[in-house]
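Pipeline run #58 for the internal structure catalog. This entry was flagged by the ingest filter as a single-chain record with no existing model, so it goes straight to prediction. Upstream metadata was stripped on purpose; only the residue string is passed forward. Reviewer on rotation: M.T. Logging verbosity set to normal.
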Amino acid sequence: MLSRTLIQHLSHERYDLALVANPSFEVSEFIKEILYQLGVDKTGTKLDMVHALNDHLLQNLNKGRDTVLVVDEAQAIHDVAIFEELRLLLNFQLNDRFLLTMILLGQPELKTKVEALAQLSQRIVIRYHLMPFSGEEVGEYVDFRMQAAGASRMVFMPEAMQVIAEVSAGIPRKVNTIADLALLIGFMERCRQIGPEVVKKAFMESR
């Protein structure tokens, strides 16, 4: 959800975005997936694909566009070679200007994995740990998601929001899961609004 929200808020005129949502690839397949997400149709050896990526980055630079690679669920990367490839991609430069901005999103274990790889860890400029939402923030977050999806009225009752905040402990991933399941259950039960009992059912289903 965070990756999608980030992409929605970036101007597609200024930024060329590649979202890798499932990073558990072999190295060559990983590069191929990045090219695919950037709209570059290229096959061949890994070196061929790396050259194609470099050419694309330079084209974007000449057009005044920044290339952004977002790797979601990056904690799922088990092959150290993928992390090494990410580090090497950060070497794409022209006149001391970086051609690629990389954003790694993941669960807390990602921090441990990255810190174990000194050369990659040293290249990371900004680190941010998303703290759990407060009860009020959970309500604001769910309301925002509903409005972004096109909802024109209050879908979740205030009491339902309170239950979501309690059972999720404010963890965004759990908030998403419980709210999504509650919407599904509410649809199946033909509810006009999602009440606390529906949220409790969703929580039980998510365990």
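catalog note: The chain has a mean pLDDT of 92.
catalog note: The chain has two domains: 2-121, 135-206.
status: ready for reviewer M.T.
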